[in-house]
Specification:
By secondary structure, the protein is an alpha/beta fold. 41% of the residues lie in helices and 11% in strands. The chain contains 19 helices and 14 strands. It has helices at residues 46-56, 69-75, 87-94, 105-111, 137-149, 166-177, 197-202, 215-228, 242-273, 277-285, 306-319, 323-350, 378-388, 402-411, 427-431, 451-457, 473-479, 496-513, 524-530; strands spanning 36-40, 61-65, 99-102, 114-117, 154-158, 183-187, 207-211, 237-241, 359-363, 392-396, 421-423, 436-439, 463-466, 482-485. A 6-stranded parallel β-sheet has the order 3-2-1-4-5-6, sandwiched between helices. Strands 11-10-9-12-13-14 form a 6-stranded parallel β-sheet, with helices on both faces. The longest helix has 32 residues, at 242-273. The N and C termini lie far apart (58 Å).
Length: 556
């Protein structure tokens, strides 16, 4: 319910918390209707954000529109186009009641006077500012589309991450085409983390709303404040001018990415000196001035925001004549790229300086757990480098499909031999016969696997590269793995006797679970299957790659 004692222009329409009496409630000065919202863009931001608004504001009709018919069809099914914990439940609860998905953009604009612009703002790939500046053609298209179909004044809300002064450009597009209608532009950047977006929306640490510093601009901002106040306390809703709001989003992501690159730079030093980066992170994180968040060393950050927003910030700084500031923030991105290259180099060097023809199991392809998003995932760089060196990659990720992965490779102009990039339906099939396991996403299920069983299925020596530092290194050593973990010195297996004992125990455990007897002298096939480099066994030998993998390295 709205905060107690808060003056609101909606109060005349309220019967109780979150309820509007008049179905055609309008703002007393702006004249805009207050009971209907349109969101242009049915992606990772627009979908969850407006689904939450529909849940928390049952008195408001919310329509999410997109020109992509397949995407809208997915939103109208139980197989949503994006994965986010809790999202499907919210959509199913509200869909068909006050939450609707449609491709009829014109009608949604005419039916709503509060319009969220939640479209993609990718980095430009050509022309001036290519590789750094934001591509604002979709935001511009929103402005032209709204002005074309507007039947009255509208409040237009930038939900996409945009450069400073984008609202000014959008205002010029609208002004040149508005005719007799007036538009008010607000900035309402999202601060969501994929994997926890629904929880972030339900209980945000802050909501930021920027508007023009005019009486009507303030009134428009208050309309959005009142919507969020249905479930967010007024103290957490911050109002600023337009430019501060737009810049705050870029700076927030830059600061978070800076912390990741900072601890990753220290992880490389830890690998050389024998220090433990997790212990360093814990020690400095106890300092209340620093705090523990975003201090987990990893193969690198990914996702649609961090790199894009920092590069955008770099470009803005260069454009404003601040080269030293631009170089400072560019280094955050450079360090992130170096971490991915360094980790991949460690894999190749450890595998006797070549991975040509070797099967490598990739566990995880999404840029982080609890999402199927592969945009700017570190796995793209790691896998591309391994493929370039001739590896056979077998990938398992519980939420990512090969089609999305290939689209991301294509976006980065990476040519991939699909015959050497195999998508697996289970981790066991990915690991079977592999020389190494490479963990690239911190999925919780990866911590629960029977790595002793995996060890028996792999070539020897068996390597494990933990790019997320989530596995028990000591336990893996005892099994027999050579373990390489981000921020830790490389660890060779335990003694041959310990490794052999652990392997035999795993084989016996697996056999008993399947109701079989462990391999004995009378079962040559089972013996061959279980054979490892065991100095205690009379027939121990190194397993060699099958002939199909022993040919010349493919060009990519």
């Amino acid at each position: 319910a709205p905060a107690a004692g808060r003056a609101s222009h909606l109060s005349q329409f309220r019967r109780g918390p979150g309820q509007i009496v008049s179905p055609m409630a309008t703002h007393p000065t702006l004249g805009t209707r207050l009971n209907s919202i349109c969101c242009i863009g049915a992606g990772y931001v627009g979908g969850p954000t407006c689904a939450t608004i529909a849940l928390k504001c049952p008195h408001i009709k919310v329509t999410i529109v997109d020109m992509n018919e397949a995407r809208i069809a997915a939103w109208n099914s139980d197989d949503l186009p994006i994965y986010e914990p809790g999202l499907l439940e919210v959509v199913k609860q509200c869909r068909g009641k006050n939450l609707f998905f449609s491709t009829d953009v014109a009608k949604a604009i005419q039916d709503s006077d509060i319009i969220f612009a939640s479209v993609n703002t990718p980095t430009k790939v050509r022309g001036i500012g290519a590789g750094r500046a934001a591509d604002l053609r979709f935001i511009e298209s929103v402005g032209r589309t709204v002005s074309q179909h507007a039947n009255r004044g509208k409040i237009i809300i930038e939900k996409s991450t945009v450069p400073v002064k984008t609202a000014q450009a959008l205002s010029r597009v609208l002004a040149a085409n508005q005719g007799q209608h007036q538009f008010w532009i607000l900035s309402n950047p999202e601060f969501l983390a994929e994997g926890t977006a629904m929880a972030d929306l339900a209980d945000p640490d802050r909501v930021l709303i920027g508007g023009a510093t005019t009486p009507e601009g303030s009134a428009a901002a208050q309309v959005l404040v009142d919507i969020y106040a249905n479930w967010v306390s007024r103290e957490r809703i911050l109002t600023t001018n337009l430019w501060s709001s737009e810049l705050s989003k870029l700076v927030a992501n830059a600061m978070l990415a800076q912390r990741v690159s900072s601890i990753n730079s220290i992880s490389l030093l830890c690998e050389k000196t024998g220090a433990d980066v997790s212990e360093v992170s814990r020690a400095i994180g106890r300092d209340t001035r620093i705090g523990p968040k975003f201090l987990n060393a990893s193969v690198g950050f990914g996702g649609s925001c961090f790199q894009k927003d920092i590069l955008n910030l770099v470009y803005i700084c260069e454009s404003e004549g601040l080269p030293e500031v631009a170089k400072y923030w560019q280094q955050v991105v450079d360090m992130n790229e170096h971490q991915k290259i360094s980790f991949t180099g460690r894999i190749i060097n450890s595998l006797f300086n070549t991975v040509t023809g070797k099967k490598i199991a990739i566990l995880g392809f999404a840029f982080k757990k609890d999402t199927g998003d592969v945009r700017e995932t570190p796995a793209i760089t790691v896998c591309n480098m391994l493929l370039q060196d001739g590896a056979q990659l077998h990938v398992y990720d519980p939420k990512v499909n090969k089609q999305d992965a290939m689209a991301e490779f294509k976006y980065h102009d990476m040519v991939v031999d699909e015959n050497r990039l195999v998508w697996c339906s289970s981790p066991r099939s990915a690991v079977d016969g592999a020389h190494a396991i490479v963990v690239l996403t911190e999925w919780d299920e990866f911590k629960t696997y029977n790595y002793a069983e995996f060890y028996t299925m792999m070539m020897k020596p068996a390597f494990l590269f933990d790019g997320r530092s989530i596995l028990d290194r000591a336990a893996l050593r005892r099994i027999g793995f050579e373990v390489h973990c981000i921020g830790h010195a490389s660890e060779v297996p335990a003694s041959a006797f310990e490794a052999a004992a652990a392997t035999r125990a795993a084989i016996g455990k697996t056999a008993r679970r399947r109701g079989q007897a462990p391999a004995g002298n009378g079962d040559a096939a089972a013996r061959a299957r279980a054979r490892v480099h065991d100095p205690l066994g009379a027939d121990a030998r190194w397993r060699l790659p099958p002939p199909a993998l022993a040919g010349a390295r493919d060009a990519t």
